[in-house]
Amino acid sequence: MFLELVNLLTQFDSGFNVLQYLTLRAILAMLTALFLSLALGHLFISKLQALQIGQVIRKDGPQSHFSKSGTPTMGGILILFTFIVSVLAWGNWHNHYLWIVVTTALLFGGIGFVDDYLKIKKKSADGLSAKQKYLAQTLGAIIIILWLINNPQHVISTNLLLPFFKDFVVPLGMFGLAFFSYFVIVGSSNAVNLTDGLDGLAIMPVVLILGALAIFSYIAGNYNFAQYLNMPFIPLAGEMFVVCAALIGSGLGFLWFNTYPADVFMGDVGSLALGAILAVIAIIIRQEILLFIMSGIFVAETLSVVIQVFWYKRTKMRVFLIAPLHHHFEKKGLSEPKIIIRFWIVTLILVLIALASIKIR
Q1: Could you state, in order of their start, the residue ranges of all structural domains in the chain?
Q2: What is the pTM of this model?
Q3: Mean pLDDT of the region 155-175
């Protein structure tokens, strides 16, 4: 929207062209989302409290969480609202990738909204059944993948990039890419959802990963940088730099209210959408493997649940005191803030390792 105004202003003064630069638009998008979140946060939380939209705590969870029952949830609405407003304000409306990410946010945010709504309505920790949720995520992923494959602006590469290796790729083919992308989107969406169990635990790793994806997006969208760093040039992918920046601003604004002890939880409406957005951006810039590396905390949380369920069904014994992994550490006696900060540090280390791949190849 803003770019249309800039194009009009440049007819009178060419100096307004500076407002079209990706870096400036990214900074403004981040600040817009951040300040909008801070401005609306208290009002939004008050509205949730008035509507009695409170968190329902699982009965088999740590006892320390019982006191959190009733804390306003569905804070992901605030994240998605400020993100979309900022992206539409500073993004390039003619870029199909921008609309693919916005649609991803709406589709998976909608799935999470229904799940959260059912939990509140039933006053239970059970919302959508696992089959219902996976079916909805599958349909959402198929829509996004078909759009990516049939993007009229740029034919997406079907090669899977392997970081730290120069000129070494795995050809997937169009069907292979679609199949692989499905697991990346659905897996990432559920992984962030499983991690969102402590105050601020999920949102900060998401922000850190977005920071790295923003850098990779900027390089991928710039022919000279991509050539110099021996990375694939992906036309129009540079707009993901603005998209990542906007979501970073929304995430930091939400963290202001979600930090321990949290005034609001993001709920499935936020976690399912954030995980899917990370995946779609990674697919656009062809950095799915690096997303897997940076998302080590999310992967570990998911594996802890898979291992726990698999082993318990076979032996009736538990590998972890409780799953996901962060609850296991709580049962071991670690305080919630300590777990949160350590998970953040681990994510930062993994993000730095991923960034090192820019030169190590």
Answers
A1: 24-289
A2: 0.94
A3: 86
